[in-house]
Amino acid sequence: MTERHTHDGAVKTGLLVLVVGPSGVGKDTLLDAARERLKGAAHICFPRRCITRPAGSVGEVHIPVRAEDFGQMARQGAFLLSWKAHDLCYGIPRHVQDDVAEGKTVIVNVSRSVIDDARSLIGHDQVRILSIRASREVLRKRLESRGREDALDIERRLARASAYQVDGNNIVHVDNDADLETGIARFIAAIEIDQAIANRA
Ligand SMILES: Nc1ncnc2c1ncn2[C@@H]1O[C@H](COP(=O)(O)OP(=O)(O)O)[C@@H](O)[C@H]1O
Ligand SMILES: O=P(O)(O)OC[C@H]1O[C@H](OP(=O)(O)OP(=O)(O)O)[C@H](O)[C@@H]1O
Protein backbone atom coordinates (compact mmCIF):
# COMPACT_ATOMS: atom_id res chain seq x y z
CA MET A 1 0.00 0.00 0.00
CA THR A 2 1.62 3.27 -1.12
CA GLU A 3 1.08 6.35 1.00
CA ARG A 4 1.81 10.05 0.81
CA HIS A 5 2.28 12.23 3.91
CA THR A 6 0.84 15.72 3.59
CA HIS A 7 2.15 18.83 5.29
CA ASP A 8 -0.03 18.19 8.35
CA GLY A 9 1.21 14.61 8.59
CA ALA A 10 -2.04 13.14 7.27
CA VAL A 11 -1.57 9.91 5.33
CA LYS A 12 -3.03 9.84 1.82
CA THR A 13 -3.29 6.36 0.32
CA GLY A 14 -3.16 6.28 -3.47
CA LEU A 15 -6.50 5.44 -5.12
CA LEU A 16 -7.61 4.68 -8.65
CA VAL A 17 -11.30 5.64 -8.89
CA LEU A 18 -12.98 4.10 -11.94
CA VAL A 19 -16.14 5.86 -13.12
CA VAL A 20 -18.18 3.32 -15.05
CA GLY A 21 -21.65 2.91 -16.47
CA PRO A 22 -23.58 2.60 -19.71
CA SER A 23 -23.23 5.13 -22.48
CA GLY A 24 -25.31 8.22 -21.83
CA VAL A 25 -25.55 7.74 -18.06
CA GLY A 26 -23.63 10.95 -17.38
CA LYS A 27 -20.05 9.86 -16.61
CA ASP A 28 -18.32 12.66 -18.49
CA THR A 29 -20.75 15.32 -17.29
CA LEU A 30 -20.28 14.34 -13.65
CA LEU A 31 -16.52 14.16 -14.12
CA ASP A 32 -16.41 17.65 -15.64
CA ALA A 33 -18.37 19.02 -12.67
CA ALA A 34 -16.17 17.21 -10.14
CA ARG A 35 -12.99 18.37 -11.92
CA GLU A 36 -14.18 21.96 -11.52
CA ARG A 37 -15.44 21.68 -7.93
CA LEU A 38 -12.44 19.70 -6.63
CA LYS A 39 -9.74 21.65 -8.48
CA GLY A 40 -8.38 22.90 -5.14
CA ALA A 41 -7.62 19.34 -3.97
CA ALA A 42 -4.03 18.98 -5.23
CA HIS A 43 -3.90 15.23 -4.58
CA ILE A 44 -6.99 14.49 -6.73
CA CYS A 45 -6.47 14.38 -10.49
CA PHE A 46 -8.65 13.75 -13.54
CA PRO A 47 -6.32 12.73 -16.40
CA ARG A 48 -7.49 13.06 -19.99
CA ARG A 49 -7.99 9.84 -21.95
CA CYS A 50 -6.42 8.88 -25.29
CA ILE A 51 -9.25 8.18 -27.76
CA THR A 52 -9.33 7.62 -31.51
CA ARG A 53 -12.26 10.11 -31.59
CA PRO A 54 -11.66 13.30 -33.61
CA ALA A 55 -10.57 16.34 -31.62
CA GLY A 56 -13.35 18.81 -30.92
CA SER A 57 -16.13 16.18 -30.76
CA VAL A 58 -19.12 16.89 -28.50
CA GLY A 59 -18.45 15.93 -24.86
CA GLU A 60 -15.22 15.27 -23.02
CA VAL A 61 -11.89 16.91 -23.79
CA HIS A 62 -9.68 13.98 -24.72
CA ILE A 63 -6.22 13.31 -26.20
CA PRO A 64 -6.95 12.51 -29.88
CA VAL A 65 -4.94 9.58 -31.24
CA ARG A 66 -4.99 8.36 -34.85
CA ALA A 67 -6.39 4.85 -35.20
CA GLU A 68 -3.25 3.81 -37.11
CA ASP A 69 -1.05 4.92 -34.17
CA PHE A 70 -3.06 3.51 -31.26
CA GLY A 71 -1.98 -0.12 -31.63
CA GLN A 72 1.72 0.74 -31.68
CA MET A 73 1.33 3.02 -28.66
CA ALA A 74 -0.37 0.18 -26.78
CA ARG A 75 2.39 -2.27 -27.73
CA GLN A 76 4.98 0.22 -26.53
CA GLY A 77 3.31 0.36 -23.10
CA ALA A 78 1.84 3.85 -23.41
CA PHE A 79 -1.36 2.81 -21.64
CA LEU A 80 -2.12 1.43 -18.18
CA LEU A 81 -5.53 0.29 -19.47
CA SER A 82 -6.88 0.16 -23.00
CA TRP A 83 -10.02 -1.17 -24.67
CA LYS A 84 -12.22 -0.91 -27.74
CA ALA A 85 -15.83 0.29 -27.70
CA HIS A 86 -18.21 2.05 -30.09
CA ASP A 87 -15.73 1.54 -33.00
CA LEU A 88 -13.21 3.58 -31.00
CA CYS A 89 -10.00 2.77 -29.09
CA TYR A 90 -9.48 4.15 -25.59
CA GLY A 91 -6.32 4.33 -23.48
CA ILE A 92 -5.56 5.47 -19.92
CA PRO A 93 -2.02 6.93 -19.93
CA ARG A 94 0.64 4.85 -18.17
CA HIS A 95 1.58 7.72 -15.81
CA VAL A 96 -1.66 7.08 -13.88
CA GLN A 97 0.01 4.06 -12.24
CA ASP A 98 2.83 6.30 -10.98
CA ASP A 99 0.32 8.93 -9.79
CA VAL A 100 -1.47 6.34 -7.64
CA ALA A 101 1.87 4.99 -6.39
CA GLU A 102 2.71 8.54 -5.25
CA GLY A 103 -0.45 8.58 -3.12
CA LYS A 104 -2.72 10.57 -5.44
CA THR A 105 -6.39 9.89 -6.10
CA VAL A 106 -6.86 9.45 -9.84
CA ILE A 107 -10.42 9.53 -11.23
CA VAL A 108 -11.10 8.24 -14.76
CA ASN A 109 -13.98 7.09 -16.98
CA VAL A 110 -13.31 3.52 -18.11
CA SER A 111 -15.09 0.61 -19.71
CA ARG A 112 -16.72 -1.86 -17.32
CA SER A 113 -14.69 -4.50 -19.17
CA VAL A 114 -11.35 -3.35 -17.69
CA ILE A 115 -12.30 -3.15 -13.99
CA ASP A 116 -10.64 -6.49 -13.15
CA ASP A 117 -7.53 -5.55 -15.17
CA ALA A 118 -7.21 -2.41 -13.06
CA ARG A 119 -7.64 -4.38 -9.84
CA SER A 120 -4.89 -6.78 -10.91
CA LEU A 121 -2.51 -3.99 -11.95
CA ILE A 122 -3.07 -1.55 -9.08
CA GLY A 123 -4.28 -3.81 -6.26
CA HIS A 124 -7.84 -4.49 -5.14
CA ASP A 125 -7.57 -2.26 -2.07
CA GLN A 126 -6.50 0.75 -4.12
CA VAL A 127 -9.24 0.56 -6.75
CA ARG A 128 -12.69 2.05 -6.10
CA ILE A 129 -15.58 1.77 -8.54
CA LEU A 130 -18.16 4.55 -8.92
CA SER A 131 -20.95 2.85 -10.85
CA ILE A 132 -23.25 5.47 -12.38
CA ARG A 133 -26.84 4.30 -12.93
CA ALA A 134 -29.98 5.51 -14.71
CA SER A 135 -32.98 3.81 -16.33
CA ARG A 136 -32.93 2.72 -19.96
CA GLU A 137 -35.49 5.40 -20.82
CA VAL A 138 -33.25 8.06 -19.33
CA LEU A 139 -30.24 6.69 -21.23
CA ARG A 140 -32.11 6.93 -24.54
CA LYS A 141 -33.28 10.49 -23.88
CA ARG A 142 -29.79 11.59 -22.90
CA LEU A 143 -28.07 10.00 -25.89
CA GLU A 144 -30.59 11.64 -28.21
CA SER A 145 -30.20 15.01 -26.47
CA ARG A 146 -26.41 14.80 -26.59
CA GLY A 147 -26.60 14.69 -30.37
CA ARG A 148 -23.14 13.10 -30.86
CA GLU A 149 -24.32 9.76 -32.24
CA ASP A 150 -26.71 8.82 -35.04
CA ALA A 151 -29.79 6.64 -34.46
CA LEU A 152 -27.95 3.38 -35.25
CA ASP A 153 -25.08 4.16 -32.88
CA ILE A 154 -27.58 5.08 -30.15
CA GLU A 155 -29.29 1.71 -30.52
CA ARG A 156 -25.91 -0.05 -30.40
CA ARG A 157 -24.96 1.84 -27.22
CA LEU A 158 -28.30 1.04 -25.59
CA ALA A 159 -27.81 -2.66 -26.46
CA ARG A 160 -24.39 -2.52 -24.78
CA ALA A 161 -25.84 -0.98 -21.59
CA SER A 162 -26.65 -4.40 -20.10
CA ALA A 163 -23.56 -6.14 -21.51
CA TYR A 164 -21.60 -5.95 -18.24
CA GLN A 165 -22.40 -6.45 -14.58
CA VAL A 166 -20.34 -4.39 -12.15
CA ASP A 167 -19.40 -6.65 -9.21
CA GLY A 168 -16.67 -7.21 -6.66
CA ASN A 169 -15.65 -5.02 -3.71
CA ASN A 170 -15.17 -1.27 -3.25
CA ILE A 171 -18.17 -0.36 -5.43
CA VAL A 172 -20.34 2.71 -4.77
CA HIS A 173 -23.46 3.07 -6.92
CA VAL A 174 -24.38 6.64 -7.87
CA ASP A 175 -27.87 7.15 -9.29
CA ASN A 176 -27.85 9.90 -11.88
CA ASP A 177 -31.54 9.66 -12.77
CA ALA A 178 -32.62 12.98 -11.28
CA ASP A 179 -31.67 16.57 -12.17
CA LEU A 180 -28.03 17.33 -12.86
CA GLU A 181 -27.31 19.18 -9.61
CA THR A 182 -28.59 16.19 -7.62
CA GLY A 183 -26.41 13.86 -9.68
CA ILE A 184 -23.35 16.04 -9.16
CA ALA A 185 -23.96 16.24 -5.39
CA ARG A 186 -24.25 12.45 -5.16
CA PHE A 187 -21.11 11.99 -7.26
CA ILE A 188 -19.02 14.42 -5.21
CA ALA A 189 -20.28 12.81 -1.98
CA ALA A 190 -19.16 9.39 -3.26
CA ILE A 191 -15.68 10.75 -4.03
CA GLU A 192 -15.45 12.29 -0.56
CA ILE A 193 -16.38 8.96 1.02
CA ASP A 194 -13.46 7.40 -0.88
CA GLN A 195 -11.16 10.12 0.40
CA ALA A 196 -12.27 9.53 3.99
CA ILE A 197 -11.63 5.79 3.61
CA ALA A 198 -8.21 6.42 2.08
CA ASN A 199 -7.23 8.73 4.92
CA ARG A 200 -8.12 6.02 7.41
CA ALA A 201 -6.16 3.38 5.50
N1 LIG B 1 -28.52 14.35 -14.31
C1 LIG B 1 -28.65 14.77 -15.60
N2 LIG B 1 -29.77 15.41 -15.97
C2 LIG B 1 -29.93 15.82 -17.25
N3 LIG B 1 -29.03 15.63 -18.26
C3 LIG B 1 -27.90 14.96 -17.93
C4 LIG B 1 -27.65 14.51 -16.61
N4 LIG B 1 -26.42 13.89 -16.61
C5 LIG B 1 -25.94 13.97 -17.88
N5 LIG B 1 -26.81 14.62 -18.69
C6 LIG B 1 -26.70 14.85 -20.14
O1 LIG B 1 -26.83 13.56 -20.75
C7 LIG B 1 -25.96 13.46 -21.91
C8 LIG B 1 -25.01 12.27 -21.71
O2 LIG B 1 -24.10 12.60 -20.66
P1 LIG B 1 -22.58 12.14 -20.77
O3 LIG B 1 -21.86 12.77 -19.62
O4 LIG B 1 -22.07 12.39 -22.15
O5 LIG B 1 -22.72 10.55 -20.52
P2 LIG B 1 -21.59 9.39 -20.67
O6 LIG B 1 -20.25 10.06 -20.56
O7 LIG B 1 -21.89 8.45 -19.54
O8 LIG B 1 -21.86 8.78 -22.00
C9 LIG B 1 -25.24 14.78 -22.02
O9 LIG B 1 -25.94 15.59 -22.97
C10 LIG B 1 -25.36 15.39 -20.62
O10 LIG B 1 -25.38 16.81 -20.66
O1 LIG C 1 -17.64 -0.96 -22.04
P1 LIG C 1 -18.69 -0.08 -21.44
O2 LIG C 1 -18.71 -0.08 -19.93
O3 LIG C 1 -20.06 -0.29 -22.06
O4 LIG C 1 -18.27 1.43 -21.84
C1 LIG C 1 -18.17 1.69 -23.20
C2 LIG C 1 -17.43 2.98 -23.42
O5 LIG C 1 -18.26 4.07 -23.02
C3 LIG C 1 -17.49 4.94 -22.26
O6 LIG C 1 -16.77 5.76 -23.16
P2 LIG C 1 -17.38 7.16 -23.58
O7 LIG C 1 -17.65 7.92 -22.31
O8 LIG C 1 -16.52 7.81 -24.60
O9 LIG C 1 -18.71 6.78 -24.30
P3 LIG C 1 -20.05 7.39 -23.85
O10 LIG C 1 -19.80 8.87 -23.62
O11 LIG C 1 -21.01 7.13 -24.92
O12 LIG C 1 -20.33 6.60 -22.56
C4 LIG C 1 -16.51 4.09 -21.55
O13 LIG C 1 -15.35 4.84 -21.18
C5 LIG C 1 -16.15 3.06 -22.58
O14 LIG C 1 -15.12 3.52 -23.39
From TrEMBL:
Enzyme kind, highest EC tier: transferase
Pathway: Metabolic intermediate biosynthesis; 5-phospho-alpha-D-ribose 1-diphosphate biosynthesis; 5-phospho-alpha-D-ribose 1-diphosphate from D-ribose 5-phosphate (route II): step 3/3
Reaction equations catalysed: alpha-D-ribose 1,5-bisphosphate + ATP = 5-phospho-alpha-D-ribose 1-diphosphate + ADP
UniProt GO molecular function: ATP binding; ribose 1,5-bisphosphate phosphokinase activity
Annotated residues for binding of ATP: 21-28
Cross-referenced SMART domains: GuKc (SM00072)
A cellular component term, taken from the record's GO annotations: cytosol
Superkingdom of origin: Bacteria
Alphabetized SUPFAM superfamilies for the sequence: P-loop containing nucleoside triphosphate hydrolases
Keyword Heme: no
Keyword Kinase belongs to the record: yes
Record key words, sorted: ATP-binding, Kinase, Nucleotide-binding, Transferase
Documented EC number(s): 2.7.4.23
GO biological process: 5-phosphoribose 1-diphosphate biosynthetic process; organic phosphonate metabolic process
Residue stretches making up the Guanylate kinase-like domain: 14-192
Cited InterPro entries: GK/Ca_channel_bsu, Guanylate_kin-like_dom, P-loop_NTPase, PhnN
Family, similarity comment: Belongs to the ribose 1,5-bisphosphokinase family.
Primary role: Catalyzes the phosphorylation of ribose 1,5-bisphosphate to 5-phospho-D-ribosyl alpha-1-diphosphate (PRPP).
The protein's name in its UniProt record: Ribose 1,5-bisphosphate phosphokinase PhnN
Organism taxonomic ancestry: Bacteria, Pseudomonadati, Pseudomonadota, Alphaproteobacteria, Rhodospirillales
